[in-house]
Amino acid sequence: MSLVAYLVVAALLMVAGLAMVASRRSLIHVLIGLELVLNASALNFVAFDRYSGGGQEGQLAALFVIVVAAAEAALGLAIVLHAYSSKGSIRPDDFRSLGDS
């Protein structure tokens, strides 16, 4: 596969993630969209590292992105569960500020 194929897939992931974040139907959709954006950036890191002929910097950057994404998913899920238990809804429009309870 060529570098262009990897970049096209990463661009499609990025567009799908941004569309999910922009739609803001629920907090779960926003979190999934953020995960897609992070996966697109990790794919770019690995693809550029593979075709640059360099060392392992791209894989290390992608690993770092995956670790950060896992931490973000855990914290995001905790926030969503707390929001649902306090408001009974996970729609982002129901929360005007972080101080709402």
How are the SSEs ordered, and which strands pair?
Blueprint: H1 3-23, H2 27-52, H3 57-87
Description:
By secondary structure, this protein is mainly α. It has a single domain, classed as Helix Hairpins. The protein has 3 helices and no strands. The protein has helices spanning 3-23, 27-52, 57-87. The longest helix is centred in the C-terminal third of the chain and has 31 residues, at 57-87. The radius of gyration is 17 Å and the shape is elongated.
For the structure shown, list the relevant keywords.
mainly alpha; 101 residues; 3 helices; Helix Hairpins; 77% helix; elongated; single chain
Strand content: under 5%
Can you tell me the CATH class? Mainly Alpha
Q: Output the helix-strand order.
A: HHH
* Total individual domains: 1
For the record, give the distance between the C-alpha atoms at the N and C termini, rounded to a whole number: 51 Å
Number of strands: 0
CATH structural fold name: Helix Hairpins
Radius of gyration: 17 Å
On the 0 to 100 scale, the average pLDDT is: 81
- State the helicity in percent bands: over 70%
Uncertain spans:
none
Largest sheet: none
> Which word captures the global form?
elongated
CATH architecture: Orthogonal Bundle
Based on secondary structure, the structural category is mainly alpha
Helix count, DSSP H or I runs of 4 or more residues: 3
